[in-house]
């Protein structure tokens, strides 16, 4: 009986290790670690001078060159809470959103969260896929009506300070 238990445990362990999914959270974005001050982004010339929104110690700033690797995207927004890098939002059109979905599924596996997005008339217009990897929430919002997608990385330790 003990032998059978160890065999089953070994098989489960082997399958869980060999899933091919990376469960290491991103340490930041664009070479900038979570918690990096706003001034460091300005020094590296990553952001535009103007602020999009500023409310309750949360600042949204548009990137100068909205790209993710070789992919040009519609919007790339960095968010700072109390002058610390906490979140990045990337909005793209259909081709890119499908690439993002494919990469996330390959890297993190099946989403841990899935929610259908609906309009005010209760018609399905898209879906939200989510993964929590270590201390980073990764969300992909797919809007089928507008043919857009928004990828969002949120560093939870700092974000929890904002939402409490």
Characterization of this structure:
The chain is α+β, with helices and mostly antiparallel strands and 164 residues long. It has a single domain, classed as 3-Layer(aba) Sandwich (Protein Transport Mog1p, Chain A), CATH 3.40.1000. 27% of the residues lie in helices and 44% in strands. The chain contains 4 helices and 12 strands. An 8-stranded antiparallel sheet has the order 3-4-7-8-12-11-10-9, sandwiched between helices. Strands 1-2 form a two-stranded antiparallel ribbon. A hairpin with a 2-residue loop joins strand 1 (28-29) and strand 2 (32-33).
Strand content: 35-45%
Beginning-to-end CA distance, first to last residue: 50 Å
Give the class-level CATH name: Alpha Beta
Would you count the extended β strands for me?
A: 12
Helix fraction by DSSP (H/I, runs of at least 4): 25-40%
What is the gyration radius calculated from CA atoms?
Answer: 19 Å
Count of the separate structural domains: 1
What's the CATH architecture name? 3-Layer(aba) Sandwich
Average residue pLDDT: 80
- Spans of 5+ residues with little confidence (pLDDT < 50)? 1-19
Order of SSEs, N→C? HEEHEEEEEEHEEEEH
The main β sheet shows up as: 8 strands, antiparallel
Principal-axes geometry comes out as globular
């Amino acid at each position: 009986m003990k032998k059978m238990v160890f065999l089953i445990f070994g098989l489960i362990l082997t399958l869980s290790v060999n899933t091919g999914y990376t469960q290491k959270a991103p340490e930041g974005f664009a070479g900038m670690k979570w918690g990096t001050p706003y001034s460091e982004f300005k020094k590296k010339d990553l952001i535009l001078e103007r602020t999009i929104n500023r409310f309750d110690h949360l600042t949204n700033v548009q990137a100068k060159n909205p790209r993710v690797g070789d992919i040009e995207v519609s919007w790339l927004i960095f968010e700072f809470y109390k002058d610390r890098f906490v979140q990045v939002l990337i909005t793209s059109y259909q081709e890119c959103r499908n690439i993002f979905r494919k990469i996330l599924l390959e890297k993190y596996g099946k989403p841990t969260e899935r929610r259908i997005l609906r309009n005010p008339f209760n018609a399905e217009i898209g879906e939200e896929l989510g993964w929590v990897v270590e201390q980073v929430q990764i969300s992909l919002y797919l809007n089928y009506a507008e043919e857009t997608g928004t990828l969002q990385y949120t560093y939870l330790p700092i974000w929890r300070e904002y939402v409490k």
